[in-house]
Specification:
Helix 7 runs antiparallel to helix 10 and helix 8 runs parallel beside helix 13 (about 255-265). This protein is mostly helical. It starts with a helix and ends in a 6-residue tail after the last helix. It has 16 helices and 2 strands. It is flat and about 70 Å long.
């Protein structure tokens, strides 16, 4: 009996070792088979590793009384003091409120437009016309934030394009950039103008993977264009829309502070001052690196929690999720 058990144990051990050896061989075989794809991905991996992961150790200064002379590892440890300083600052409430408000408004207005635009592009007939319209819509994305802000300042000036349109309807000129109620409209509207066309690329790529036979069969059954969009295109786009929505929700706390800084004026600080612009003033201009690192870490943690929560909700209500 004992010899039988020993024999079975030895046999099981042999099988496990054989399985491990087989797994290693399969893994090596897979790596060798995909070697060219892995080599193509290697530069991107190194860039992410060097510029996104290696600097992460600098997050430590959020918990220190950082001194440039002493360095990250030599500075005095102060725990959560920098976080408490931020939350006890009257500016914290204003900047968090403005950041969240701007992020939510931006999500509500900017997210659906590329989807609608992609559906409209897909319905265009005439290959040359379609490509021309698409190219024109992509162009604003490649303008730098500085150029976009400069154009907006010209458009919003007393003699600018917007006031010329108002004068055509015999309306009084408005100094748009000095009116707090216009700041969010200008900020979000310019974001839609520059990003909507480029944002259609992912959706158009997803649409291009739809089997054309489905549209042909629907046409034979007498389906209208709207019915094809509703019953064929939209279901195929749903996984892409879900992934992009989860990513966009995670970005609510990360407004484009460069454009905010360029467009804001003292008259609009109450509406336009976001965490990014406040961090720029305190960190870069005020040289309070540990304080602004703590604010940035708080911002990143909130973004991470939002992504996890959105992903969890998506898992519950649909089969689509990031992980």
């Amino acid at each position: 009996m004992k010899s039988s058990l020993n024999s079975k144990t030895q046999s099981a051990g042999t099988n496990v070792r054989a399985g491990a050896t087989g797994t290693r061989k399969n893994w090596k075989s897979l790596v060798w088979k995909q070697r060219w794809l892995l080599l193509m991905a290697l530069p991107g991996f190194l860039i992410v590793l060097v510029f996104n992961y290696f600097p992460m150790y600098g997050v430590l200064i959020a918990f220190e009384d950082y001194s440039v002379k002493k360095g990250v590892l030599g500075s005095e440890w102060v725990g959560l003091k920098n976080f408490m300083d931020f939350f006890s600052n009257p500016m914290a409430t204003r900047t968090i409120k403005n950041t969240v408000t701007l992020g939510v408004y931006n999500l509500l207005w900017s997210f659906p437009i590329p989807i609608v635009l992609a559906l409209l592009f897909n319905e265009l007939r005439g290959r040359r016309f379609k490509k021309t319209v698409q190219t024109i819509s992509y162009f604003p994305y490649f303008l730098s934030t500085m150029i976009v802000a400069g154009m907006l300042m010209q458009f919003c000036s007393r003699e600018g394009l917007f006031n010329q349109i108002l004068s055509f309807f015999e309306k009084k000129p408005i100094l748009f950039l000095q009116k707090p109620k216009w700041f969010r409209t200008i900020f979000i509207g310019s974001g839609i103008w520059t990003g909507a066309g480029y944002g259609t690329i992912l959706y158009l790529a997803a649409i291009s993977n739809i089997d054309p036979n489905l549209y042909d069969v629907a046409s034979i059954d007498g389906a209208s264009r709207f019915q094809k969009i509703r019953h064929i295109t939209m279901p195929a786009l749903t996984p892409t829309i879900t992934i992009m929505l989860i990513m966009s929700i995670g970005g609510i706390m990360g407004s484009d502070f460069q454009k905010v800084i360029l467009l804001q004026t003292p008259q609009t600080y109450s509406i336009s001052d976001v965490i990014g612009s406040y961090t720029y003033r305190e960190g870069i201009l005020g040289a309070r690196f540990e304080y602004t690192t703590a604010i940035g870490l708080f911002q990143s943690l909130v973004g991470f929690v939002l992504i996890v929560a959105a992903n969890k909700v998506s898992q519950k209500v649909s089969d689509n999720s990031l992980w």
